[in-house]
Write a structure and sequence with these properties.
Elements lengths: L1 E6 L4 H10 L4 E5 L4 H7 L3 E7 L21 E4 L1 H9 L3 E3 L7 E7 L12 E6 L4 E4 L5 E6 L2 E7 L4 E4 L9 H14 L8 H16 L3 E5 L4 H14 L3 E7 L7 H12 L3 E6 L1 H8 L5 H22 L3 E5 L4 H5 L25 E3 L7 H10 L4 H4 L19 H20 L8 E5 L4 E6 L2 E14 L7 E2 L4 H14 L3 E6 L13
Parallel strand pairs: 1-2, 1-3, 3-4, 4-11, 12-13, 12-15, 13-14, 15-16, 19-21
Antiparallel strand pairs: 5-8, 6-7, 6-9, 9-10, 10-11, 17-19, 18-19, 19-20
The structure holds xanthosine-5'-monophosphate (XMP).
Xanthosine-5'-monophosphate binds next to loops.
Length: about 500
């Protein structure tokens, strides 16, 4: 395995995913990870990432013992600064953070550049270079007359001032692969087929003949986790799906069809629509709505759990980004959402989190290999509080029905236009607004539907999607013709920030 010591670079996750795509297992850990833990992982190689502009970590905080480990090390950008200083050298720090693809000359034969020729296009900051090269190291690549890559061949230490890990760098990917396969001698062992096999064994050993419970939301992560655990322990897994009445059209039926009919799983569907709507009656404040929905979910789940006996384990669909989201030095890097799938904290279960090691695309691949349909595997994110945060103001059955139908039409037309894999998230919301319109020469006073569609990587920032106007027109026409009580459709063209993706 390869260990990435993260100094805060925004590319570390992408690097992690790209190494796994090369079929080598890797983990991203904060730079402060203890030397004992690093030894415990027994890595075949270590990559020290670049840093975060304006938030450089002081060299004193870095554990120098890493360089005493007998494993190959590739240090990138700020990671290379630290390495070279520890070895007694120095570098020229850039004053501006301006990067481009530039032509780099390979000046010495090195396994790192093996097979790439003498001139390589790489992503770099022209101002950034090594100044004093430490003893034992040699320059291997230059940009103009500046040294931007060095190696200590004997100890397999590599420092690079360019960024091989960025998304569009083809030669960069070849350099990473050279590090993995020619320097660290990694094998291509990390495949999802193997992951499934090992996980099933592991879950069986962990659970024995005891029982496990899973709160199934119908989202990708909990669905894949549930099917995987079901493969391992069969009917000893009980899944609970809470229908809080805030689901999209046909969602409950789809979950029943997939998990009960197709996978023959032990599925309890709790119809809690009335309970939720009663609790939400008259409530208009978004935060209060979220709180009520979250708490009510816990109550329903607790009641179901009490009806079952002998449950020792709780299955959760935690995935690798959730694990690394705890961030450098344990600081939470991403805002935490109130998730309806979030369960009572005082439940006395042992956790089974079979997807803890996987990135989202790996979770999807596992899902496909397990036979879960594309509809579920490719599902877009859906907030825990469901349509509760898409009906603005007070939630009523009538408003839920309107937003559900409009959302269904929106999704249907996006699918028909072949855009479903090109937009990260898209949905309809119902602002608490009525406006004047005209139908068959008569005045109407009805609701407005807001369409929201965004592209994003992780939901933290987002760009509104440039859906072709003729598709928007079709959607709008269908909504005003087919959904009762709607006479106007608007398209939200705000990025996040300053807007959020959801309207509440
Ligand atoms: P916002 O609206 O904060 O949403 O820009 C970012 C992403 O998170 C989803 N979202 C939630 N997911 N529980 C969830 O599990 C929630 O309470 C919640 N609120 C928003 C939202 O759909 C988008 O993908």
């Amino acid at each position: 395995m390869i260990l990435i010591l993260d100094l805060g670079s925004k590319c570390s996750r992408f690097l992690g995913r790209s190494i796994r795509k090369s079929k080598v297992y890797c983990e991203i850990v904060p730079y402060s990870y203890s030397i004992e833990k690093i030894k415990g992982k027994n890595p075949e190689g270590i990559i020290i990432s670049g840093g975060k502009p304006n938030e450089m970590i002081s060299i004193e905080k870095f554990d120098k013992q890493i360089f005493d480990l007998g494993v190959p090390i590739l240090a990138i950008g700020y990671g290379a600064d630290i390495m070279v200083e520890i070895y007694g050298g120095s570098s020229v720090k850039p004053k501006e953070f301006s990067y481009n693809f530039e032509n780099v000359d390979v000046v010495t034969e090195s396994l790192l550049f093996d097979g790439l020729g003498e001139n390589v296009s790489l992503w770099l900051n022209k101002q950034y270079a090594f100044k004093t090269i430490p003893n034992g190291f040699n320059p291997i690549a230059k940009y103009e007359d500046k040294v931007i890559a060095i190696e200590n061949k004997e100890n397999k230490r590599y420092g690079v001032m360019f960024h091989p890990e960025i998304k569009n760098s083809i030669e960069g990917k070849n350099i990473i692969d050279n590090f993995l396969f020619k320097i660290c001698n990694c094998d291509k062992k990390w495949t999802m087929e193997q992951f499934i096999e090992y996980s099933i064994e592991e879950i069986r050993m962990q659970v024995g003949d005891k029982k496990a419970l899973c709160a199934l939301s119908g989202g990708v992560d909990s669905s894949v986790a549930a099917v995987l655990v079901h493969k391992a322990i069969g009917d000893n897994l009980v899944c609970v799906f809470v229908d809080h009445g805030l689901l999209r059209k046909n969602e409950r039926e789809q979950v029943e069809k997939v998990f009960k009919d197709h996978f023959k799983m032990n599925l309890i569907v709790v119809d809690a629509k009335e309970r939720f709507l009663n609790k939400l009656k008259g409530v208009t404040d978004p935060e209060q709505k979220r709180k009520i929905i979250g708490e009510e979910f816990i109550r329903v789940f607790e009641e179901e759990q009490k009806k079952l006996t002998n449950i020792h384990f709780l299955v959760q669909g935690t995935i690798y980004p959730d694990v690394i989201e705890s961030g450098i030095d344990g600081k939470v890097a991403v805002k935490s959402h109130h998730n309806v799938g979030g369960l009572p904290e005082d439940i006395d279960f042992e956790l089974i989190e079979p997807l803890r090691q996987l990135f989202k695309d790996e979770v999807r691949e596992v899902g496909r290999l397990l036979g879960i349909s594309e509809d579920i595997v490719n599902r877009q994110p859906f907030p825990g509080p469901g349509l509760g945060v898409r009906v603005l103001g007070e939630i009523t059955e009538e408003k839920l029905e309107i937003v559900r139908e409009a959302d269904y039409i929106f999704r249907d037309e996006i699918k028909k236009a072949g855009l479903q894999d090109k937009i990260w998230q898209y949905f309809a919301a119902l602002p608490d607004v009525k406006s004047v319109g005209v139908t068959d020469g008569k005045r109407t006073y009805n609701y407005t539907i807001a369409l929201r569609a965004v592209n994003s990587i992780d939901g933290m920032t987002a760009e509104w999607a440039k859906i072709p106007l003729e598709v928007l027109e079709k959607i709008s026409n269908r909504i005003v013709n087919e959904v009762e009580h709607v006479n106007r459709v608007v398209y939200d063209i705000t990025n996040k920030p300053p807007a959020t993706i959801e309207w509440e």
